[in-house]
Amino acid sequence: MPAPEPASNPARILLLFAHPAYQRSRINHALVEAVRDVDGLTLHDLYECYPDGFIDARREQALLSAHDIVVVQHPLYWFSCPPLLRLWQDTVLTNGFAYGHGGRALAGKRWLSVVSTGGGVFADAHCEPERFAVGEFLRPFEGCADLCGMSWEAPFIVQGGHALDMEALAARATDYRERLLALAAEGNAGTAGGC
Amino acid sequence: MDQGSWLAQACIFLAAAVVSVPLAKRLGLGSVLGYLIAGALIGPHVLGLLGEPEGVMHVAEFGVVIMLFLIGLEIRPSYLWQMRAAILGLGGGQVVVTTLAVAAVALACGLPWQHALAVGMIAAMSSTAIVLQSLRERGLDSSQPGRAAFSVLLFQDIAVIPMLALLPLLATQAVVADAAAPHGHSLIGGLPDWAQALVVLGAVAGIVVAGRYALRPVFRYIASTGLREIFTATALLLVVAVALLMQAVGLSAALGAFVAGVVLADSEFRHELETDIEPFRGLLLGLFFISVGASIDFALLAAQPLLILALVVALIAIKTTVLYVLARLFRDGHADALLLALCLAQGGEFAFVLFAFAESVNVLDAGITGPLVLAVALSMAATPLLFMLAQRLRGKPARKPRPDEKIDNQHPQVIIAGFGRFGQIVGRLLRANGYRSSVLDHSADQIDLVRRAGNQANYGDASRMDLLRAAGAETAQALVIAIDDEARTSEIVESARKHFPQLRILARAYDRRHLYELRKLGADVIERETFAGAVNLGARTLRLLGMRAHQAHRAAQLFSYYDNDLIDRLEPYWGNLEIYRTQLGKQTADVEALMREDAEAFHLGQAQHGWDAAPEAEASSTTGGQMAR
Question: Helices (DSSP H) in A36-115: which residue ranges?
Fold first, then answer.
C-alpha cells in the first residue's frame, strides 16, 4: 500500500479545488495563491486534472489516504458545488472505502469547506440572513463528512466577492492562509486516519 | 576571361571573405566591415590581386537587386500603404533637405550651382545594402528606427529615377550626344517623353499584373514537379528578368525587383522563395561589399588625405544632422532618431552609379568625382563604426521590448506542418479561439484550397529547417506536425528539437510504435491519429447494442484512460520485439482486468444501480491500491 502513514508533523492538507471558470475568478485566484505554498499542502485542481469529467478514482482515493485534512474549495453555484465536485463525491467516496462495510479510510480526518460567492442572490438576500445564510447550503457536505467519519470544521466563507476591493480581498486571502496554518498546527494532536 | 583566371578570381574572393569576415565578426565589427576590409586588401591599391573591381561591382550589384526582392517579399502591399507617411514624409524630407544642404556647402566651396546641386542629390543617397545588412545583423530590422531607415531607403530608390532624368539638364558643357543611361542601354531612349513615361508605367503595371495572375500558376506548376533546383532556377529567372526589364525602360533594377517581391508577398510561395534565394543574396552582397572595399583608392587618399577626410566628415555630419532633425520633427525619441541618423549617414552605392553617369553627361568632371567617390566609399566603410557609436550613445544595445503586442501576422503563435484532413481540424480549432497560426504544406493544390477558404498558408516542405524558420519557428510557441508520413514526421521532430529548443512540439503518431519513437525523439505531446475516432465509433456501437448513452460514454472514457496507461506500461519493452510481444499480452490482460474492476467499483456499476448497489467486499480491497500513474 503506497499511502504512507501520516507523519507526526505537520498535518498534510489536500486542497480539493473545483472551479470550472478559474481563469475568470479574481477571488479564487487570490485565495489559491495565498495558500499554494503552505507547508505540506497538495493543491489538486479538479477541473484542470479531469477536463472531460473522467475521474481516476483510484488516484483520488490514494490522495485522500495520504492526507490528514481535506480542504474543499469551490464557488457556490445555484446553492451547491460545481458539478465535477459532485461527481467526484459519487465516484471517489465509495461504499467500502469512505463508508459502509470496511469503509473507514477517511475516519478521523478533517473536512474544511471553503466557499466563495460572487454576489447575486446572497448580496440581495442579506436582509433575510436566517433564510439564506450560506452555511445552510453546506449542510449536504457536512452530512457527507459525517458519513465518512470526518470531523466538520467551521467553513471559511468569502461572500460578495465582486464587491470586494483589492485590499479587502487580500485581507481575506491572508485570513485563509492563517486559518489553514492554524488548522495544520492543531493537527498534530488529532488522530491520523489511514486505510 | 578564360576559365582558369575566372576560377582564380573566385578563389581570391572566397578566400578573402572566409578569412576576414569571421575575424571581423569575432572582433564585434560586423560582417560588412569584414567584407570591406577584405576588399581593400585584395584590391588594386594594396595587394593588387583583383583585376577589375568595377566589372565585379556590376555583377555584385545584382546582390542588391536580390536583396530588394527579398525585402519586397516580406512586405505586404497593405503594410507598404501603412508606411506611406514615413516613406513620403521622412524619406522625401531627407532627400530634399540633404540635397539642398550639401549643395549649399558645395556652392560655398566655389562650385557652380548646377554642379553643387548634382553633388547634393548624389550625396543624399544612402547605402541600402550596408544599412539593411547591418540592421539585420544587430536584430534591429523590425525596430522603430529600423523601419524608419527602410522607409527612407525606399524613397531614395524611387528618387533615383527623377535624378537620372534631371542630371543631364544640369550640364554646363555641351552634352555628349550618345550619353547613355547609367546601366547602359535604355531601349526607349529614342521615344518622346510622354511615350517613355507610358512605357515605364506599363512595365511596372505589367510586373504587378503578372505577379498577381501569371506567376502563381507558374510556381504551382513548377512546384508540382517536385524539383527543388528548378524552383530555385525559376525564382532567379524571375528576378533577373525583372531586372532586365527595368533596365530596358531605364528604371532601377532594384526598384523593379522590390515591386515584384511585394506583389508576391501575399503568395503561398513566399517562404520557399525567400529560403531558396537567400544564399545568393548573401554571397552577392558579400561580393558587392568586397568590390566597394576594392574601389577605395589609397593612392588618392595618400595624395590628399586632409581633403578626403574633410569630405567624409562633412558628408557624415550633414547627413546625420539633417536626418536627426527630421526624425525629431516626426516625433521619434532622441535615441531612436540618433540611431536612424547615424545609420543612414554614409553615401550609397547609387552614388557610384550616379557619379559615373554625371561624368558621362559632362555634369561633373573626374577632378571632382574622384575624391567624392573615395569619400563615399570611406563613409560606407565607416558605417559599422557609426552603428557601434549609435548603440553606445543609445545606452542599451539590444532591442527594447515592444511597448505593446500588436497583432502581427509575421509572428504566428503556432506553426502547423501539413494541412490535410488532420491539420485543418487543428488549425480551425485554433482559429476559432483566436490564435494565429502559420501553415506549411507541400501540396500546392492543397495550399490553394486552404487559401481560398481565407487561411494563411504557405507552400513548402516542413522538414526543411530554413523554411520552418522562415515560417516563424524561432518566435512561435508551438509546432504542430500533422503530416501523413511517418518517417518524415520523425525526421521533423528530431531536427526541430535540435534547431528550436524553445519550441513545443506536438506530433501526430501513426500508431503506438511510432508514438514511442516520437517520444524518444523529443516530441512534447503526441496523439495517435486514429485513436479518438475509433474510440468514439466504439462508444456509438455500444449504444447501438443497447447501452445507455452516458454509460457508453463513460465506458469509452475508461477505455481511453487505461489504453494510455497501457502505453506507459509497455514503453520500457519497446525495442525488443520478443519481450514486447509477451509483455503486450500480459499487460493488456492486466489492464483489462483492472478496467472491468473499475467499471464495477466506480463508474458504470454505480451509474446503473445508484448508491444502494453496494459493490462486493473484494472490490473495496483494491480501493486503497496503487495509483494508476
Answer: 46-49, 57-65, 83-92
Chain B interface residues facing chain A, Cβ-Cβ under 8 Å?
A: 554, 557-558, 560-561, 598, 601-603, 606, 611, 614-615, 617, 619-620, 622-629
For chain B, give percent helix, strand, coil, nearest 5: 70, 5, 25
pTM equals 0.58
A155-191 pLDDT, tens digit each: 999 887 777 888 889 999 999 999 999 999 885 544 4
3-state helix, strand, coil in chain A (%, to 5): 45, 15, 35
> Under an 8 A CB cutoff, do B623 and A91 touch?
no
Q: Is A95 in contact with B561 (Cβ distance < 8 A)?
A: no
What is the grid cell recorded at B235? 525564382
Helix extents (H) in B43-174: 53-73, 77-82, 84-85, 92-108, 113-124, 128-137, 144-166
CA dihedral for B319, B323, B324, B326, sign (positive or negative): positive
Closest in B557, B620, B627 to A58, CB measured = B627
CB proximity A57 to B under 8 Å: yes
Please tell me the distance in Å from A105's CA to the nearest CA on chain B: 8
Q: How many residues does chain B have?
A: 629
Partner-chain residue, chosen from A53, A90, A105, that has the shortest CB–CB distance to B606 = A90
- Could you say which of A53, A91, A95 has the minimum Cβ distance to residue B615? A95
* Cell numbers standing for residue B46: 594594396
3-state SS record for A99-118: ECCCCCCCCCCEEEEEEECC
Angle formed at CA B472 by CA B281 and CA B433, multiple of 5 degrees: 150
pLDDT per residue as tens digits for the range B178-193:
444 444 445 666 666 6
Residues in CB range of B512: below 8 A, 6 or more apart: B528, B567, B570
User: What is the per-residue burial (b if ≥16 Cβ within 10 Å, else e) of B343-380?
Assistant: bbbbbbbbbbbbbebbbbbbbbeeebbbbbbbbbbbbb
> Per-residue DSSP letters for B538-558?
HHHHHHHTT--HHHHHHHHHH
pLDDT of residue B174 exceeding 60, the answer is: no
